[in-house]
Specification:
Strand content of chain B: under 5%
Largest sheet of chain A: none
Strand content of chain A: under 5%
Radius of gyration of chain B: 17 Å
Structural class of chain B: mainly alpha
Mean pLDDT of chain B: 80
Mean pLDDT of chain A: 92
Low-confidence stretches of chain B: 1-13
Distance between the termini of chain B: 19 Å
Number of domains of chain A: 1
CATH architecture of chain A: Up-down Bundle
Oligomer: heterodimer
Shape of chain B: elongated
CATH class of chain A: Mainly Alpha
Helix content of chain A: over 70%
Largest sheet of chain B: none
Order of helices and strands of chain B: HHHHH
Shape of chain A: elongated
Chain lengths: 122, 153
């Protein structure tokens, strides 16, 4: 895990979450902006997965439990797919709010993943 | 036809509308979070705090049932939703209090809601931004306002 990348990821997910919730309560159905923000969050998670696979091989070991870390990472990877699928079926403002909820949940999960990697057991 | 009659229109098949979908979604995420964590804790370190981890798994199952009950139609599921959500509220209050004031009864080693013994209900769900404390209250308020057809008293 790369510390600055993780920090950026938490900030992006949190901003995307607030953005989608604001758009949702403003009455917007899921559109390019909200779905784009969600896609960006998902792309960063895929990048995080690649970093996680490579990191232990190059001497970047987690201080905490790697299996616990993967449970968070895989759950986080699934959430945008579920939320995005929901948003494509349900074209109303609450789906946009849900996209925001997905992003905020991911922000918390990535923060927790950072703790597992850097703090837990250190 | 009054507005109230209209809201109980038999052609309205689904009970969950509007903000209720957000509620269902948050329940789903919490179910996922609680399940993932408790499964990992039980596999990895069950012997460290068996009581706490068993409760954690129980909480996870109840969250899953509550999520399904909120979505599923009919009076029976409505009752299941009431029971499971009430159970969660009681659980988070009782276990949250125990984790703060008598952690030893749960076999917990500390009160850290982010620690390795922490469960979804520890310190009133602090490790989950207090969502486990707020959600059942919102859920019960929502259920009160959305009685299924034929169940209105």
């Amino acid at each position: 895990m790369i510390e600055w990348f993780t920090t950026v990821q938490v900030i992006v997910a949190a901003v995307a979450g607030v953005l989608c919730i604001v758009l949702g309560f403003a009455g917007r159905v899921p559109g390019d902006v909200s779905m784009g923000a969600l896609a960006l969050v998902e792309v960063l998670l895929v990048a995080q997965l690649i970093v996680t696979i490579v990191a232990p091989a190059v001497g970047n070991e987690p201080s905490g439990s790697l299996p616990e870390f993967y449970i968070y990472l895989i759950s986080a990877l699934i959430l945008p797919l579920a939320g995005g699928f929901w948003a494509l079926i349900e074209r109303n403002k609450w789906s946009t709010v849900i996209l925001g909820g997905v992003c905020l949940a991911i922000a918390v999960m990535v923060y927790r993943m950072g703790q597992i990697w850097f703090v837990q057991g250190a | 036809m009054s507005a109230r009659d209209h809201s109980e229109d038999p052609t309205a098949k689904r009970r969950i509308t509007g903000i209720g979908r957000v509620l269902v979604f948050v329940y789903g995420v919490l179910a996922l979070a609680a399940t993932g964590r408790s499964v990992f804790q039980i596999i990895d370190r069950f012997h460290e705090a068996p009581v706490a981890f068993t409760l954690s798994a129980l909480a996870a199952v109840v969250y899953i049932v509550a999520t399904i009950a909120l979505v599923a139609p009919g009076r029976a599921w409505y009752r299941v939703a009431w029971i499971t959500i009430t159970f969660e509220l009681v659980g988070v209050l009782v276990i949250g209090s125990l984790s703060l004031f008598a952690p030893a009864t749960l076999g917990l080693h500390d009160v850290d809601p982010f620690g390795r013994d922490a469960t979804v209900w520890s310190v009133y769900g602090m490790g989950y931004l207090f969502i486990p404390l707020v959600l059942p209250i919102l859920g019960l308020i929502y259920l009160r306002g959305h009685k299924p057809r034929g169940a209105a008293s």
